[in-house]
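Ticket #4471: structure output looks truncated?

Reporter: J.K.
Steps to reproduce: submitted the chain below (300 residues) through the standard prediction queue, then opened the result file.
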Amino acid sequence: MNTSPAPALTETELKLIQNLIYGVCGMHFDERRASFLSDRVQRQLKKSGLDSFSSYFRLLNSPEGKKELNALVENLTVNETSFFRNKPQLDLFQDEVLPQLIERKHAQHDYSLRIWSAGCSTGQEPYTLVMLAADALAYHSARHPMSLSPSPRQPAVPAPWRLEILASDINYSVLRTAQEGSYTEPQMSPVDYSFRLRYFDKIGAHYSLKKGVRELVHFDFHNLKTEFLPKRNDIIFCRNVMMYFDEPEQKRLVEKFYRCLNPGGFVFVGHAESLLGLSTKFQMVHSNAGTAYQRIEVLP
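Returned output as attached by the reporter:
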């Protein structure tokens, strides 16, 4: 068994990989992140059992190398996430954005709410969103009761409302974990007792999302580089994803988000990210330390 490290990438080889990754998924690795990219490529090259970069690069560009290319891309993303991450932003979502949207939809007799978590990682973000949205809809329905036949069981979302959370990622392995909806006690530390009681079942040492709640979240593979992205969203969460892209790719992504949103919809990006300077089609919404961006209706 060969235990020697894979040879370091030359400048030319590194450039070839940078261009390949950029073309596939839009991720940009400048000189500050070149060593990280080189290290991850070396690891994957060694795992593949090939003896040279040229052989590995040919594999990545071949039809039979698609699985290896996906594995390389997965190893270039940092899947750090947690429940109720960035509380000021979620306070803005819960206290201002959701009530505004729900009131507007109620007035229009549109009882659907669709949220997209782009870059959902292992699922804590979309499951956080489904809990907060279900709570908001229940609160609204308590103040605006509708004369409907009582349900034999208490649904996660009160009728006639329909809630759909679409959760996507470019990493198949984290999507598989997210679909299971099962988390350890340390992972559950940000989730208070009330949410645990209403939305989770305790099974052994793990907490699993209740079936009716888990069914509200639909997981799928999406590459944000493509044009085939989910449309008709009321809210898009895409946090700590744009940092992987250079400015031209960020501008293209923001334009896609504009087209993927319903009129008056909202985008939430990472705490250190911003749409300012990338588009004039959104206005910033700010409350305390929470920030979001609302789609501006632009005349054709």
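Triage note (M.O.): checked the attachment and the full token line is present. The mean pLDDT is 91.
Status: closed, working as intended.
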